[in-house]
Specification:
By secondary structure, the protein is of the alpha/beta class. Helices cover 34% and strands 13% of the residues. It has one domain: Rossmann fold (3-Layer(aba) Sandwich).
Length: 205
């Protein structure tokens, strides 16, 4: 986790080597063909609940209220939903069963998610701000830290997502802070750098 997402009073009990988080990616030759929108001029919002908390009724509630912000919604179905939920809302919705997060973020101006660390760190590595609605596990903690860092807004239920998405898309401070955090992430050592440091026989201070 970047320092901005850690609790201000947290102290590691052991030495730390920072490593650069990245959105999941695959070689370009294996990229998924993503669906296109009728009006590409509208902002695209990526909606993903990850692989654990994606289930039919919850996803339907998220998609309905996000699309009511009159945006293009690219929603992931996770691993367990065979059919996308039917939605009656203002915005256009496209579904994808699975694609690497790095590719899904290509056109996204905003990410709506439950607050899993992989999604949050992946989005912020690309400078994309978030609206988070925690569903369980450690998501509430991650969401609170992202809000404190100024890179996300947090809501308590899907009913609040329409307004939260509208406000987030208009919030330049949110976007600026996300870009600053992306620059900080980009400046940290890559996984290859960290592996090299760990396997270097020279003693470290």
């Amino acid at each position: 986790m970047p320092a901005a997402l850690q609790a201000p009073d947290w102290v590691s009990p052991a030495p730390v080597l920072r490593v650069q988080p990245r959105a999941h990616r695959r070689p370009a030759a294996t990229e998924v063909d993503l669906p296109r929108f009728t009006d590409p001029g509208k902002p695209t919002v990526l909606l993903t609940l990850g692989t654990v908390f994606t289930e039919g009724p919850t996803l339907a509630a998220f998609v309905e209220t996000v699309a009511d912000a009159d945006v293009n919604v690219l929603a992931t179905l996770g691993m367990a939903i065979p059919q996308p939920p039917e939605i009656t809302s203002r915005g256009e919705v496209r579904y994808v069963s699975f694609a690497p997060l790095d590719q899904l973020l290509t056109d996204a101006r905003l990410v709506v998610a439950a607050g899993g660390s992989g999604t949050v760190l992946g989005a912020l590595s690309r400078g994309v701000p978030l609206v988070l609605c925690p569903q369980g596990a450690d998501q509430a903690i991650t969401a609170a830290r992202a809000a404190a860092a100024g890179v996300a807004s947090v809501v308590g239920s899907p009913d609040e997502l329409t307004g939260a998405v509208t406000r987030a898309l208009q919030d330049q401070d949110l976007r600026t802070r996300a870009a600053e955090l992306a620059a900080d992430i980009a400046s940290t050592p890559t996984p290859a750098d960290v592996i090299a440091a760990l396997t270097d026989p020279a003693p470290r201070a």
